[in-house]
Design goal:
The chain is α+β, with helices and mostly antiparallel strands and 292 residues long. The protein has three domains: 77 residues, Rossmann fold (3-Layer(aba) Sandwich), CATH 3.40.50; 66 residues, ATP-grasp fold, A domain (Dna Ligase, domain 1, 2-Layer Sandwich); 95 residues, D-amino Acid Aminotransferase, Chain A, domain 1. The strands form three sheets. It has a five-stranded antiparallel beta sheet, sandwiched between helices. Strands 2-1-3-4 form a four-stranded parallel beta sheet, with helices on both faces. Strands 5-8-6-7 form a four-stranded antiparallel beta sheet, sandwiched between helices. Helix 1 packs across helix 9 and helix 2 packs antiparallel against helix 3. The chain is globular, with a radius of gyration of 20 Å. It binds adenosine-5'-diphosphate and magnesium ion. The site of adenosine-5'-diphosphate has 20 residues, from strand 6, strand 8 and strand 13.
């Protein structure tokens, strides 16, 4: 098959994927998103023969628009623009999880510092304030007191971009010093790890350590439902342990493989390519049936 890989920077993760595709004899079309131009009707020529395009853009805006254009040309894209739109925004992500009855931390969104303050006081301290767009723990705040809340809200309202005027407030979950990342293809876990740290941001903190995690039936079920809630695809589902159960705090649409590969010993790029092959083959079979 011919696989287009949309990227702006080739990190270790992309290298692993490209190597796996080439080792299996697939044609790889490297698509540097900075050089492509997307028209309304015809795809850029580099995309013409792609059976599937894998979006590995780092910048969210590029990922959202590029996947939407590729989809509009009728070329299958992973992840779909619908999934990307939901996962790229923490408010949309939470709404999708709640609509699917997937347990997720108590969350409220407010648009002024006064109403955000009312939520924070109601949730109690500590609580968490997150930007709706962004990742790697950037600009996330754990708020321990009313005076800290006032300072952060004022800073965001005065200095923040328009996205930061959306106040996303979440209850603080007393997790056991770690969270869980499960990478799944259309809801089926392929590898999972815990990320531990003394810092409350266990995913992005300096010195956070990753270890393999054995998925139990409950996690398997939650991952399947969380994946369906955001439209499926190649996803990283993030969960926290809540004592006797789990809560899903987000689903990510551009997943990294390297740490997971190292922590679990699972050949993550291999499993991802297995899934891509199945998808492309499945679509070809469906097409063949239609044309009979
Ligand atoms: N409500 C919460 N309570 C406690 N810890 C949290 C909460 N939300 C997030 N965290 C911690 O912060 C990390 C980053 O949060 P997350 O919502 O996944 O944002 P990011 O987009 O930066 O990955 C999580 O991996 C977890 O360790
Ligand atoms: Mg996360």
């Amino acid at each position: 098959m011919q696989v287009g890989v949309l990227y702006s920077r080739i990190r270790q993760d992309e290298k692993l994927l490209l190597n796996e595709l080439r080792d299996r004899g697939h044609d790889v079309e490297k698509l540097d998103v900075r050089k492509l131009r997307f028209g309304l009707h015809e795809p850029p020529t580099a995309l013409l023969n792609c059976d599937v395009v894998v979006d590995r853009c780092l910048a969210t805006s590029r990922s959202l628009y590029a996947s939407q254009f590729v989809d509009s040309y009728g070329i299958p894209v992973v992840n779909s623009p619908t999934t990307a739109r939901i996962c790229a925004d923490k408010a949309k992500n939470s709404l999708a999880l709640a609509a699917a009855d997937v347990p997720t931390p108590r969350t409220e969104v407010a648009f002024t510092k006064e109403s955000a303050m009312a939520t924070i006081e109601e949730f109690g301290y500590p609580c968490v304030l997150k930007p709706v767009v962004g990742s790697w723990g950037r600009l996330m705040a754990k708020i321990d007191s009313r005076s800290a809340a006032e300072a952060i809200l004022e800073h965001k309202e005065t200095l923040g971009h328009y996205e930061h005027k959306v106040f996303y407030v979440q209850e603080f979950v007393e997790k056991p010093g770690r969270d869980i990342r499960v990478v799944a293809t259309d809801g089926v876990p392929i590898a999972s790890m815990t990320r531990s740290s003394d810092h409350w941001l266990t995913n992005a903190a300096q010195g956070a350590t990753a270890e393999a995690f054995e998925v139990d039936d409950e996690v398997r079920d939650l991952v399947e439902r969380a994946s369906r809630a955001v439209g499926g695809g190649l996803l990283g589902v993030d969960l926290m342990e809540t004592g006797d159960s789990y809560t899903v705090h987000e689903v990510n649409h551009t997943v990294e493989f390297k740490a997971l590969d190292e922590a679990t010993g699972v050949d993550v790029p291999g499993r991802v390519v297995d899934w891509l092959e199945e998808r492309v083959l499945g679509e070809r079979e469906a097409d063949a049936e239609v044309s009979v």
